[in-house]
Design brief:
Shape: globular
CATH class: Alpha Beta
Largest sheet: 7 strands, mixed
CATH topology: Rossmann fold
Number of helices: 11
Structural class: alpha/beta
Distance between the termini: 31 Å
Strand content: 15-25%
Number of strands: 7
Strand order of the largest sheet: 4-3-2-1-5-6-7
Amino acid sequence: MRSTGANSGSASHSPAVLTDFDDTAAVENVAELLLTRFGDPTWHDVRSRFRAGELTLNDYQEITFRNIQADRETMQGYVKEHAHLRPYFKELQGYCADHGIPLAIVSQGLDFYIEALLDKEGVSHVPVHAVNTHFTGQGIAYEYRYARPGQERLGNSKGLVVEGYKDRGHQVIYVGDGMSDFEAATKADLLFAHRVLAEECQRRQIPYRPFKDFRDVLSALQELSQDGYVDGHGPSDEGHAPTGPLAYPGKGEDEEP
C-alpha cells in the first residue's frame, strides 16, 4: 500500500492536507457500496451493532467483509465503475504537487478500494494511510499500521497520523465527515467538516470551516500562500466576525442516515 509519510526534515510549518476517504474524498461511502453489491445482507445488522457501540470499527469491517465472496480484482473493478472522487480533488492534488505540499488520504477503511478509485482518477501516487489488506485463500487479512500502541483492538488512529505530520513541522489542514474523524479534527490546525463531524463540532464549539468540495480547501491553501500561515477565518453565517484563532464554529449539515 502507498503509505509514505509527510516530507521530513525542514518542513518549517509548511501545510499538509489530510483527508478522510469514504463520503469525503470519495462522493460515495465506497465500503458500503461494496457491501451492498457483494456482501451478506446481514451487514446492515452488523452496522447497527457498531453504531450502538457494541462493536469497534475494525470489528464491523472484518465481520462484514469476511462474508464477501468476490476477489480483489472484481471489487476494484466495481469501485472504478461506480465510485467518484469529490469535485476539485484532482485540482487540489495538482496544486499541492506544484507547491510541494503533502496531500494524503487518512482512512479507517480498506486500502484496496481506496487505491482503486485513486488509480481510476489518475492520482495513484497520493499516499494512503488506511487499513492494509492481504487477500489469501482463507479470506482477507488485516494489518493496522497506524494503531496507537496498546490500543490495537481499536484499529487505526487518524489522530496518530495527524500527530506524525505535525511532528515533522507541518500545519495540518484536515477534512472529514464522521465521528471517526473527531480525534484528528481536534488536532488539526485548520478543519473542514461536513455531515456528522460538522454537527459534533458545532455542538462542542470546535472551530471549523464548512466543507462542500475541495475547492474550499484549495482556496485555503491559496490564502496560505499569500499570507504565510493558515488563516481559518471564513465568512460568518451569523453576520459577525469569527472569534477563534483558526475558524468560526460553522453550521452543521444533515446527519448521515
